[in-house]
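Title: Comparing notes on inverse folding

I've been comparing how different people in this forum approach sequence design from structure. To keep things fair, I'm posting one structure and asking everyone to reply with a full sequence. Here's the target:
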């Protein structure tokens, strides 16, 4: 991974306090299935619980339940354990990384204020900073549609690395 590993890991650890137990997880999964009127087959119990456990075991059950309730009123299908994990982790982030389009807009705003002589240093997300560092001073000359696609490709690669590290499950797979 690039330079995000320690920063993302610290942000993730800071955000997550108490790990759930297997009993709490099973209660939650059964409740989640019932919420979406899905049948929880006892024959598949071990596989279903292992899939959910491997992705949610290092999260606080209260945080998982709270985020699930918010998702349940907005989605028609049962969220996957991965979707739920991402939602919980993102809810604990101080600053969610911008989308590639938002990152492009940030770069354009920085370039414009620099060219006008009104640029003031402000905090930008580390992924945007990393993409700008990769491009060097060329970053501030990008303006065409092709340039935008080029920048967004570089940014997307850095974003993917950051998110893999941020969403990583502590404790591995069982």
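Reply #1:
Here's my take.
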């Amino acid at each position: 991974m690039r330079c995000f590993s320690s920063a993302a890991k610290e942000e993730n650890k800071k955000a997550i306090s108490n790990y759930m137990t297997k009993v709490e997880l099973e209660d939650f999964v059964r409740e989640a299935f019932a919420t979406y009127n899905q049948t929880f087959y006892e024959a598949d119990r071990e596989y279903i619980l292992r899939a959910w456990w491997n992705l949610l075991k290092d999260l606080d059950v209260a945080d998982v339940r709270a985020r699930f309730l918010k998702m349940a009123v907005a989605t028609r299908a049962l969220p996957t354990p991965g979707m739920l994990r991402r939602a919980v982790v993102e809810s604990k982030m101080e600053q969610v990384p911008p989308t590639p389009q938002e990152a492009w807009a940030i770069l354009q705003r920085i370039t414009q204020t620099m060219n006008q002589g009104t640029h003031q240093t402000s905090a930008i997300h580390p992924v945007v900073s990393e993409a700008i560092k990769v491009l060097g001073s060329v970053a501030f000359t990008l303006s065409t549609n092709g340039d935008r696609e080029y920048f967004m490709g570089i940014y997307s690669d850095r974003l993917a690395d950051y998110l893999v590290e941020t969403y990583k499950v502590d404790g591995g797979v069982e």
